[in-house]
Design goal:
about 675 residues; alpha/beta; eight-stranded mixed beta sheet; six-stranded mixed beta sheet
């Protein structure tokens, strides 16, 4: 299920031609900027280890250049054990977490006291302590809903809010939206303000920072009424038409060095956008977790570069541009040190690959940058590192340690929840496991004969490593951070095929099956298998669909083959009962379920399985019955032997068969 190849590096290099790291060093810059950047911080439980290290590296790098900006490309928090833990309802726990916020701010030198903890606030507190100057608005900022978003980034009597602006030039906010209270169309982007752009000063020079949010926001998150994007599809020409006037305004105001921090989900979209805009010098790509890197800087163990750092090219006016991106969850600090000429034009020849690139935030990376003898000394010697360490320790001690030591099964293999290659590009053992868990629990809770399970790969947020040989509550919460409720729906054979077609419609691969993008909609399935050919036109890619064990005698039934339904599909004309995520059933990730329900609600027979008032039932008693996390925990609790599902290579996959692997 995992492919032992660099996922997109070769494809990027081949597609970009002249794009790549600059080697010459002859240009004399009029100004030099050190850009430290990140994307998809998405704390999750990994923040306990990675965030203090990230903070220490940023603090060590910052003074190495007079002009330094620290910018995020969005998705700074996500519904996860970490973000949710900060919103603990237990009064004693809340008091401890609130006191820790006050203490950490004091350690970092931030004048704030009387702070109250809340969902997502620890994520923003970490960014405040690190000293981020600006951030794009990603899609996951909206996952808690607009009211909670305002409570996380907005300032109040008991909360600092974000001490930096949140940027999105293509976000439209209606007057009735809760976000209107902290939104400015004019670009007046102060702390905690959502605006199209901001102007920052560094080293005596001004820099225009513009933000952009994925046009798919409405289908992949929960922005609420009154919030939309322009455009609403991945039309980069339309997005460029929105952003170019902002670039022109900044240029007219005398700001000639411009950075776009965007959260577009696929770095190929930032690449396309860079050729359509005139005047943007640097693009910080967010949402794809694309690990751009040079050979000169060490990566984390098992990580590989997915393209050169930076990617260089030309904009619509023939000017040089640089595109940067790093992996998420505080695992890397991106660093671009680059010069500009007197007219504010980027000078690619000033980029030294010995200096610019991805800085790993593992222990070795911290020691390399700080020169400390050991990690404890490195964190103690860093004001930001020490403050962040105090924060994450407080939340770990108060909430995460208990869930991290509550186990549901033994484990004999790594469970693959990687993005690419992984759950967004192919079958994986973790995808199979959670899809099977949903199917088993659906049959148990409903009493129906539920035949198939389908979920989106984007809903799996982390792998579960072999580690100590056990699977904990915390790891389940990490992997299934959204904890989507489960729902039942009845599909015709045609509708099931159409659903699978949609799931693979946007996925692209090289000729040998190596993925060239990662789609959150990519399906993970249980109770069925299917084959698809990504070289065919979207809508005609599914080659075969088989229901596993669905015949009266327990044998498999192929209902679709060679581009058409088989005679055996007639056995299921009364419908195929399926379990999916309520998020998808409501049209999340663009799935077509709503049209099926609208066509015939009685036939679809939607049933929500989550029990809002039932938590303490069965082996798992940490979340609601009928949710993904509860389903996986209960399913794992039935295992009498260690979980040992192999994570096979693409050519060996059986549930999701990409025909490129066998041609």
């Amino acid at each position: 299920m995992s492919v032992n190849r660099t996922s997109i590096g070769l494809a990027l290099c081949a597609a970009l031609g002249a794009y790549g790291p600059a080697l010459g060093q002859d240009a004399a810059p009029a100004a030099t900027l050190q850009l430290l950047h990140a994307s998809d911080l998405e704390g999750n439980a990994g923040a306990v280890k990675n965030a203090p290290n990230f903070a220490a590296i940023v603090e060590a790098l910052r003074p190495q250049q007079e002009a330094t900006l620290v910018i995020s490309a969005g998705d700074n928090f996500i519904p996860s054990p970490f973000s949710n833990a900060a919103g603990a309802q237990d009064e004693e726990v809340r008091a401890k977490l609130s006191a820790a916020l006050d203490a950490a701010m004091k350690t970092a030198g931030i004048d704030a006291s009387g702070l109250e903890t809340g969902t997502g606030r620890y994520d923003i507190a970490i960014m405040n302590i690190i000293g981020f100057d600006a951030s794009a608005l990603g899609n996951h900022e909206f996952d808690f809903g607009p009211e909670t978003l305002v409570s996380i980034i907005g300032k109040s009597d008991t909360w600092t809010g974000a001490l930096f602006p949140l940027l999105s030039a293509n976000l439209e906010v209606g007057a009735d939206s809760p976000l209107a209270a902290i939104h400015s169309d004019a670009g007046d982007a102060g702390d905690g303000i959502v605006a199209p752009y901001t102007v920052l000063e560094a080293g005596g020079e001004t820099y225009g920072i513009i933000g952009a949010t994925t046009p798919l926001l409405a289908t992949i998150s929960s922005p609420g009424p009154g919030i939309t994007t322009t455009p609403t599809s991945d039309d980069m020409a339309a997005l460029a038409a929105v952003i170019q006037p902002v670039v022109d305004k900044l240029t007219a105001d005398g700001v000639n060095k411009i950075i776009l921090t965007s959260h577009l989900q696929q770095i190929s979209l930032e690449e396309k956008l860079s050729t359509l805009l005139d005047g943007v010098d640097i693009f910080i790509a967010g949402g794809s977790d694309t690990r751009l890197a040079n050979e000169n800087l060490r990566l984390r163990e098992k990580d590989e570069a997915q393209g050169p750092y930076p990617i260089l090219g030309k904009d619509a006016g023939g000017n040089d541009v640089a595109i940067v991106s790093t992996d998420g969850q505080y695992t890397y600090v991106g660093r671009l040190v680059v010069g500009f000429d007197a007219d504010g034009k980027l000078l690619p020849a000033t980029i030294d690959p010995e200096v610019s690139g991805a800085y790993a935030t593992d222990d070795e990376g911290v020691l390399s940058v700080t020169g400390a003898a050991d990690l404890a000394a490195a964190l103690a010697g860093s004001k930001a590192g020490a403050a962040v360490h105090d924060l994450v320790t407080a939340i770990s001690d108060a909430v995460l340690t208990t869930s991290g030591s509550t186990y549901f099964a033994d484990l004999a293999v790594d469970l693959n929840g990687n993005r690419e290659p992984g759950v967004r590009t192919e079958e994986t053992n973790l995808g199979n496991l959670t899809a099977d868990a949903n199917l088993a629990v659906a049959n148990e809770l409903s009493g129906d004969k539920v035949l198939v399970s389908l979920k989106n790969g984007g809903g799996i947020r982390a792998s579960i490593p072999l580690g100590n040989g056990k699977i904990s509550e915390l790891q389940i919460q990490d992997a299934l951070a959204f904890n989507n409720p489960l729902s039942l729906v009845t599909l015709t054979p045609e509708q099931l095929v159409a659903t699978l077609e949609y799931g693979v419609a946007a996925s692209t691969y090289e000729d040998d099956g190596t993925p060239t993008n990662a789609q959150g909609r990519f399906p993970q399935v249980g109770g069925m298998s299917f084959a698809f050919d990504p070289t065919e036109e979207a809508g005609s890619r599914v080659m075969e669909v088989t229901l596993l064990g669905a015949a009266a005698d327990g044998s498999d039934v192929t209902i679709y083959a060679d581009g058409e339904l088989t005679p055996a599909s007639a056995e299921f004309e009364d419908g195929i009962r399926a379990v999916t995520l309520s998020f998808l059933l409501d049209g999340g990730d663009g799935y077509p379920y709503p049209s099926f329900v609208e066509e015939n609600a009685g036939f679809a027979d939607v049933v929500d399985l989550m029990k809002p008032d039932v938590i303490a039932a069965g082996a798992a008693q940490f979340t609601n019955v009928g949710t993904e996390q509860d389903a996986l925990a209960e399913y794992l609790a039935t295992f009498t032997a260690p979980v040992d599902l192999p994570d096979t290579s693409g050519i060996e996959d059986t549930r999701i068969r990409n025909t490129l692997f066998v041609q």
